[in-house]
## 1
Amino acid sequence: MSDYDKTIDPAVPVEGNNGEPKQDWNYQPNDDGAISIPVRIGSRLEDAPPMNQQPPVPNLADTDDSIVREYEKKYYRQSLYSDAPAPQPRIGDPNKQKRQWDFRDINVKVPAKHRYQTRAASGELQDTERTWAAIAHASAILTFLVLITVTPGVVLTALIPLGIYLAFRNKSEFVAFHALQAFTVQVVGTVGALLLLLTGGVVLGTLIAISLVLSLVLIGIPFLILFSLMLVGLVLFSFALPIAMVVYSMIAADAAYKGRNYRYPYVADWLDDQLKNGMLGSVI
């Protein structure tokens, strides 16, 4: 038996109380100069059963899971772990119709621009109503032509849609509201543009004159440039209002002639508010 196959020799004296034998480690080298060191093999490995007969190692995950379940049942009287199978992904039924929501029994606050009752539909209108509503909008062309001639007649042409409103306010709500929109737009596009140009021109002209005086000492030159640019912008904006009036009026005239309830941006909502709660409701 070689030195590698040696086990603990019971004849070797024991040192201490732990039962460990005292071995002699003074080995002599072999002929080739190598020193053979014996390997100590414990008796437990010799007595161990074969690998195929060893007991299975317990699953720590199952043990921890059972401890958690026992703890929950003891203190919470129920397990927080769900024993139900995992939820399956929901698959839509292609044959199921889309649910239609019914808001008739729900108190829904309608936005401001739609909170008033819808006016007459095209099927309820007569040809006369559609024609007069279109004329009220189309009169903006005549107002624009008089405006560019700079004659006082612009005030009279702007009163055309107002006359149509007064004639149909008790006969046709469709014609009356279209005519009232046309009158408001023409007043803003003509009288409003003239007042803006006049007042803005006076203010900016005064500032430009002051800047000219101050420019003699080089202080007013930046203000002179600034106020001059503002005056140019004011003039362009004042001329743009009548042009926008004509464009929107042509769109509204076409819609009214086809029986549609055209609403000018901002103007229609403002008129609705005034007719319901404002001054126009008591005057006209």
## 2
Amino acid sequence: MKRQQGKGLLALLGLGAGVFAWWKYKNLSPEQKNKLHSKVNDVGQKVKDTYTEVESSVKSNLDSLKNSAQNVKSDVKTDVNELANKS
């Protein structure tokens, strides 16, 4: 029962924080709203740029690993063929 009460209190706290944030935003001046909008847009752009950077890095690392695996595979095939020809 205590676990459910804790979750309920946490939900109530979250709801209260949301209502407070909405009230605070509602009472901002148009200048402050524009400033907040630009700040949110800047942060969003930074997140997008970071995501693109990480995605590119992961993709290049994956391609590098694929090439390394392909090289090892061809080296093993060559070694197997050389051993088969010696026998």
## 3
Amino acid sequence: MVRKILRCLPRTWVPKVTAIEEAKNLNILALEDLLGSLMTHELSMQKTNDDEEKEKKKKKIVTLKSSQTEDSEDDDDNDNEELAFITRRFKKFLASKKKFGGRANKKFHQKGEASKLEEIICFECNKPGHYKSDCPRLKKKDILKKKKKAMIATWDDSDESSSEEDTNEEVAQIALMALEEEEEEENDEVTYGELVLLVEKYSSMIASLKKKVKSLTNENDELILAKEETSNEIEVLR
């Protein structure tokens, strides 16, 4: 029975069979001892295979990380080149618009002023250089609103016998205020320098967001690999 069992073992067990035949006397070897030795050898082989599989997965993860890092660096270079190209094209476009009536921002050519303008952006008129509370447009709107309220209050308090001429004059004044407000908004153009600052600002923001997306994507890939490795280990333990 012992010899039959040894002959039925697969080729991968040949070294173990040879070792048993050399170390043991098959004529007196108990079947229980043989099975115990074979089971011990099988567990040892399984552990070796598991270790080799883990090592392969570790190498795969390292290779993937290296590849992702290289791809990320290449993508960053490409993104920077694209943003630089877009910025150059936009500057050329604005320069051509400036030749045909656009207004140049003289302060833009001064580095110190440009730095200050870039730090502060008004949320009312979207212009750099001041906060919303100090915005000239907002102050002018407040003045016009107060004038309108004063005119309306005057109407309410005025005698019903007021002449039609006085009423028409008051209506004309309010209409003039509204026209001035609309004209102020229409003439509130963004200058060349301000547009360039906005383009550079948002280009930098886009580049930063792209890097963050790539970092999160790489982290997600690593988590997927770790999940697969854990699932395989659980299957082995079962």
